[in-house]
Structure formats: structure tokens, C-alpha cells
Amino acid sequence: MSIDTLQRFLLDDLDIRGAVVRLGPVWQEITARRHYPAPANALLGEMCATALFIADALKHPGRITFQLRGDGPVSLLVVDCDERLNLRAMAHAVADTAPAPMPELLGGGQLLLSLDVPNMRQPWQSVVPMQGDNIAEVFEHYLGLSEQLPSRLFLAASPEGAAGLFLQKLPNADARDADGWNRITGLAATVTADELLALPADELLTRLFHEETVRVFDARKVLHDCPEDWDKVRTMLRSLGRQEVEAVLREHGEVLIRDDLANRDYRFDAAAVEALFSEAPPTLH
Fold this sequence. Notes:
Hsp33 domain; 11 helices; Heat_shock_Hsp33_C; Heat_shock_Hsp33_N; redox-active center; unfolded protein binding
């Protein structure tokens, strides 16, 4: 298994399914030039791995967005992923945020979910109380409510990568082996952060479940494909009006539009602003 992939697996004899995610270059692109404090970076990386497990279940084109909002020094974590596993993410955090337990970092908050698919008139949204002492527990609680299937998450993140192991108990698991779920989750709980971040899926699963029959499926590639969209930004600036845009230009010497999720800046100098309002806007048909 290469890096920047999600790979599903099934414990055939136990009716337990799961997946392994390992991120490297994609994670580094997401965090490039952002300089998040280490505690926020770690939370965001763990949330990225978790969102991929959930987005992998999307059967039709669509985009799922998770937001953790609170009143602590890490006030916002957003992860956005579509059915192709095209991942975007961002955080808002106080620059000198010190290491602390997650509830202290986020403060009292909520988990917001938004699902946007082409045939829906508007995105479906849900708000879930944030319950748990870490990202894994928050999403285990969410999955228990939404899918009504016991789930476990084991997550890790560093400046170089993010990774996770996901397990879910299927309805017939107890009939197949009454102790199977407890045995497998106990074995999974021995995994270390270094193992999650470094080991390919097949090696990780063999190390953890060497006495079980594990069927591993083809890996899916994770993307960070966020092309520039200058037309969209120009249309937005035109909607603000020339007077307001030129006022920003006079104050700052340029007009800067920041796309946080895509980790991209759009800059307009005086010549670009003049061209923006001199050229005819595109005709809508």
C-alpha cells in the first residue's frame, strides 16, 4: 500500500469490517504554509483520516463536510471530502496554543455535518453534541448514532503524515463469534502511533491480527485536487462593486482573497482591479 491511500479490509470469519488510511504528501499539501500550532495540526490530521473513512461510504457523487466548533484556543476544525476521496481541510487556532486535552483545546462545542449531493435542493445538515475526550471518541459517538453499528477508531498525526485504523462491527458478528469484537478491538488497541504512520496496510493488519483471516481490498487513492478558480473569485469581487474593492486596494495595496479550504490565495494589484471592472463580465445563458 502506498501513501495517500485508503484500503478496506474484512475479517471474514468474524463479520467485522475496517479500513486503513495513510497520508503523506496530501497531508503536507493541506498544511503547507499554514503554520498551525502543533496541537491544532494533530487534531486536524486525525480528523482528516476519520473523514476519509466516512466519505469512502458515499455511493453517489457528493461532498461531506465535518466541522468541530468550540470556544477554546482551537476554535474551528473543518474537513471536506467528496466521493473521489478528494480531501480539503482547515483550522482556526490561537498561534501559541499549548498542548492540552482535546476538550480544553476545543472548549464546549458541537460537531456539524453537511452532506451536499447534486440532486438535493439544499445540503442536508445535522448537529451532534461533541462527546468524547479525543477525535476518535467524538466520531465513534457520531457513528454509533448515525449508523447504529459499534465502531472504533485509532488515529495518529505528525507534521509529515496522518493515519488511522477503522473497525466496525456488522450485525451478524456476535452470531459468528461472541467474543470476536472484543478480541479484535483489544488487539487493535495495542497499535502505536508510529505503526499507524509508518506501516503499509498489509503489514499493519498482519501484525495486529496474525491469527485471523483478513481479506484486503484494492487501495483507493486520496487526492488534494483544488485547482484555481479565478473566474469564481472575479465574479465575487464584481458583486461587491468597484467602490468597495478599490477601497480595500487603497488601504492594503492589494486585494487578497483567501480560500482556506483549498489553501490558496488570490491576489489583485491595481492593474488587475482596473482590468476586473473594465472588461465585460461573462454572459449568463
